[in-house]
Every structure is written in structure tokens, then in C-alpha cells.
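In the previous chapter we treated chains in isolation. Here, by contrast, the input contains three separate entities that must be folded as one system, with a combined length of 756 residues.
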Amino acid sequence: MGLIGSVRRAAFTRPHLLLLTAPGAAEVRIAVERFARRRGWPLADSPADADALVEAGVLHGEMAEVAETVWRQLPAPSIRMPLAVPAEVEPGLADLPARLASWRPETGEEPEAAPELSMADRAEDRDGLKLDVLHVPLGPLLPHWPEGLRLVTRLQGDVIQHAEAEVLGLGPDTRSFWAVEDRRAARRLDAIARLLGVAGWTAMQWRCQALRDRALADEPRDRLVGDLKAAAARIRRSRLLRSELTGLGAVAGTGDAADRLHQWLTEVVHDLRAPGGELAGSHPSAAEWLDMLPDTVVGAELTAARLIVASVDLDTAEAEQRSTTGVHHG
Amino acid sequence: MVEQSPLWSVLLLPVALGALALFAASLNAGFAAAAAGRPVVAAELAGPLREGTRLLVRQRRRTARADVLLWRLGAGGIVVAALLASAVIPFGGFAVSDMPVGVVWFNAMEVLLWVLVWMVGWGGNSAYSLVGGYRFLAQGLAYELPLMFALTAPPLAAGSLRVGEIAQAQESLWFVVWMPVAFAVYLIGLAGVTFWGPLSSPASSDVAGGALAELSGIDRLMVLAGRYLMLAAGAAFAVPMFLGGGHGPLLPPWLWSVLKTLAVLGLLVWLGWRWPRVRPERLMTPAWLVLLPAVLVQVLIVGVLALARG
Amino acid sequence: MSSLVPLLAMLALAVGLLGAAYGLSVLLTVRRRALVAGPFLSGGLATEHAVSRFHVRWYPVTLLFLAFDMEMVFMYPWAVVAADIGAEAVVEMFAFLAMLLVGVLYVWREGGLRWV
């Protein structure tokens, strides 16, 4: 076992984390992201690539069911790690490599019976053809995705034909982490990083996450503002990014995804210089965004839809407890 | 002249290509560390080895009612295609196979990835990976024709499809000097074939890893390794086609081939970290209206110059 | 013929290496039996097969692609002999390519290159 043991230790020095965050638990998520970025632990895109399912915050209701479903999809060895509060992040994650290296299969585990699946239905397409439709939920567990949001979509090919939005896992104790006014700059930076993550600009995504963490850590503002302006200038200069976002998710009052990104960049610099104060322009509430999102993503290809959702600074913890009409669970 | 090396050199090629692929993966890990603000130390550069070990140790995974045969053939096939493609590449004066139609052979092996990546996406019976597989085909329709026309420019100038003779024809002047457009288009095409950098949408995180979404363990390792092997083979093939093959002062020709290959790999990895991803739907128009005409004009210029010379 | 022998040897070697890699994983893996799981759907449960008649919206481009792909069959042999045959070969090939490019312009004007 000596050789095999050391191979396993070497294999899991940097575990891949699958991060499922409850609405309102942004602080735990940010702590996990910071830990992972500093240690070089990758965040997994799907359960197949995850060594650990990290549950950030307390998962209520359907979010708990989601965690159960996804947990069964992780191949061995795997660890399930609930982290309710930020203080648990460092000690919990630090143990992971050792726990994975010494993982032993539990006896008596039976593989799940494969579910019965039906063939896809067909429906009218806008080209006047009758074609297969897939029912694909987007969220609540996807990389760079708002906490607890689920968009139930009908896809033909990779284009969304119909969508409904709901927020899962709102509990009686759910409070928005971002409700405090002097966190507004950090909130914008978090949103910018998420949008860049969907857009595939990983280097800039991490740079903005690091700036977000510094903004939350109450670092002296002058140095932070300087670094921030450099990053903002670099983002604004990217013609490719601008052309990818232009025309996506246009909503009256806020413009399209590119406009919203530029608005955020302006606000961040402004907020760091003089925290607080009224924001210029229109900022729809969480409930308003939830109403608008389905119509905005219909007709979009999946990447475009993902960019639209990420271009909306939707704080799901502020959504009222409700379910969209017409969506049944069970 | 390039000669065909003895048959036992077949055993060396996977080692050489593997080392080049590992170089690219390590460099990529180094860029990742730098982007995340970590010091680029040996432990970072060893990332691909650690990752490979991890995937060897992890349990494999199968989705319900998957098309397992196509799925596994697709995953393993990428490695095989990359190794076969590399067999016609001369390193200095020697090639494993000095085929008379070497350029066509490389092209054919590279195009195999169309079906292989699609099979990886399709086999899992999973919506996200299916979308990823089809994205690869959609991107292929955009980059593949410009890529193939770019591949005809060097043979046109050299009057041969034998890769060794094409390298030989660049003794006085590298083809990249008078075929810059073909070289640039070739690199774009290579990024498409290996779903690299801005063209990585077939396996991107916005669809939970796309074609890779349901793969774990050795199956995932084979796709990732195959992708880096193909990137290495493509970079090595650019050397005899555009960068003068083994020609260069002082150093032995095989070393020049290796150094130039490393330079091309370094360029590709660096560019991969520089830009955001291109949305899959937005590739068609610029590819057909800009890249294709540009590369055709390039081939025309090469044709006229070849006439004038010979 | 002699150039094909190393290619066949390489094919055999590549398949052998794949087998060795899979063998190594059997030795090292923590659990040999593969996990059978539902497809990942963001935490949702699958009710239908994902493999379906995928609505490929870029099908007009596939036809355009085929036209050029057939052309590639001529392009490679042409590249070898064009310099020997002379100006005639270059003129003929590019007249043909120009006609195909008219097709590209037509598809573009009809909106075939935009697929969403």
C-alpha cells in the first residue's frame, strides 16, 4: 500500500471543488473562491470533475434536494462538505486533501438503478418545422451562476424557446450579504468577475475577484482605486469583449449587457472613492429582473443566454419567496 | 534532405510528442498561477502531472443510458489521431514516415477530431455535453476551410505534398515571410481543432464543461491528453510548413525543429490566456467573409510567385 | 508503400499505449466499477433522453461547406502541379474559386451565416 498510498496523496493535493451556494451565502462562496484561487484548487464545472461538493451556506428546501441529486453524481473518492459560515471555510477545506487520500469505499453501497427516460417530445419551431424539444434546467448549480436561481428552459438545438425563472432555497433566515451600503463596490466587482467568467476571460475574472476581496477587506482605498482603474481600463479596451456583449439582453433603462458592464465599471470606481450616495441610472430590483429574465433569454443561444443572466446584477437573496406560476415541482 | 528514419523511431515519437504536450500543459499551468497571483514555482508547473495522477486514481463514470461505445471510442480516438498526425512531421532531417502526401495525411488526421469530439459530446446522453459536441461541429464549419486552404499554400510553393520537401524548399527563405496570412489562419484553425483559448466553447464552463461535462477518471484524462497532444502535433507541423523546418544556424536541425515547436506552443498558450471566448454563433460570418477570402488571396499570391520563380 | 508501414506501426503503438493507460487506471483507481449516475442537469433530474434530433440551425452552412470541401479534393493535386503547368492552371483554379465565393456572398446575403 506504500506506493499506492503516496500516489493517492500526490493526486489529491489540489482537490477540485464543486460549489453550491445558498441564496444570501455570498460571503461563504467568496471565502471558498479566495481559498481556491490562492491555493490553486480548481473549481469544477460539473460533478464528474469534482472531488468535493462544497455547500456554502444553509441549504433550504429544494436546494437541499439539489445537493442530494448532485452528490450522487460525484465519482469516488468524494467528500461532501457543508460550510455554513465563513469561519468554517479555512479549517474545513484544509483537511480535504488528507480526507481524500485516505478515502475508503463504504461497504454495501449499491449503484443506483438507471432512471427510465422517455424520448424527447417535438414541438413547432419558429422556422415552421416540427422538431425535438429538450427540457433543460439552467441552475441552481452551474459555474458563474446566481445563487439559487433556476431557469427552466425548453431548448431546440442550443437555442432557448421558452424559459421560466424561480429562486430556490429561500429560508426564513435568508438575508442578503450585499444589503450593507459600503459593500456596493465589492458587489459590483463580484458581478463583473462573474460576467468575465462566463465570457471565458479567466485571467481578468480572477483579477476582479482579487480586487473584490481587497474591497471587502477594508484595504486603504487609494492603492485599490489605482489598481481598479487599471483593470477597468483593460476591460474597456477589449474590443472582442465589447462585441461579444453588444446587443445582448437589451432592457429599457439599463441598455444591453455591454452597457451594464460599463455602468458597473463606472460605479465601482465612484463607490470606492466616495462610498454611498445615490446611483445614477436605472437599477431594477431582484423581483423585476426575475420577471424580465425569461423573456430576455428566449431566442438566445445558450452562451448568449448565460451572458445575459450574468450581465444582470441579480441578488437572489432579495427575491421574495415565491414560485413562478406554471412551474410544478416534485 | 529529409529521410525516413528506421522503424524503431516509431517508439520515440510518442515520447517526444508527449514531452511537447506536457510542456504546453505546464506552461498553461504557469500562466494560470500567474493570472491568479500565485508565484510560478515548480509545484505549479507540475500541475499537469498531478492532474494526470488524480484522474488515474479517480473512479470512472457512466451516465444513464449512455452510448458507451461511441463515447469511449471518441475519448480514446483523439490520442490516436494526434499520434498518427505527428508521424509525418520531420524533426530536423528525420521523419517517422516520409509520406509523398504527408500534408493530406496530417489534414485527414486533424479532421478526425470532428467526429471524435462530437462522439464524446453525444455519447454521454447529457444535454450540456451534447451542446458542446455540436458546438465543435459549428466551429469546424467556420475554421476548417480557411485552415485547409492555408495548408495548400506551402505545397504550392514547394511543388510537393511531401512535408520534408516543403521544409527543404525554405532553405533560403521561410514561408512565413511571404505567407503570413496562411500562417495566421493555420494557428486560428489549430486553436479551433484543439478547442483552445477563444475557440474553447465546445468545452466551456458556461455549459458545465460541454463535451467534457460527464467525463471523469481515465476517460477525461484521455480527452485532455489528446487535446494537448493534438496541440503539440499542430505546433510541430507548423515548423516544416511555415517556419523553415530544421533550417537555422549553429544548432543541429532536430534541435531547431524542437525549439521552433516550443516557440509556437508558447505563443498559442500565451494567446489563449489573453482573450475572452468567442461566442460559437459569432464565428461563421467573419470566418467566411474575412478569413476565407483572405487566405484565398494568399494562395493566389503564392501561386503567382511560384509561377514567376519556376 | 514503405511510408505506410511506420504509420501502421504507429497505429498499433497508439492503441497499445491507450490500453496501457487504461490498465494503469485499473491498477490505481480507488474503485474499479464505474459510477452510474444521471446526467448533470444543474441539480435537476433527467426525465428524457438528451440525445435527440438536435436542431442544427447552421445546416445551410453545411451545404456551402460541402461545395468547398469537394473543391479541396482538386486543390491538393493542383498545388503540386500548378507551377509546372503554368499560368493556365492558376487562372482556371481561381476562376472556379471565384464562382464558389459568389455562393458565399449569396448565403451571407440570405442570412445563412447567422444561425440564431
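Strands of chain B lie at 3-4, 61-63, 94-95. Chain B touches chain C through 80 residues (CB under 8 Å). Compare these points with the single-chain example from earlier in the chapter.
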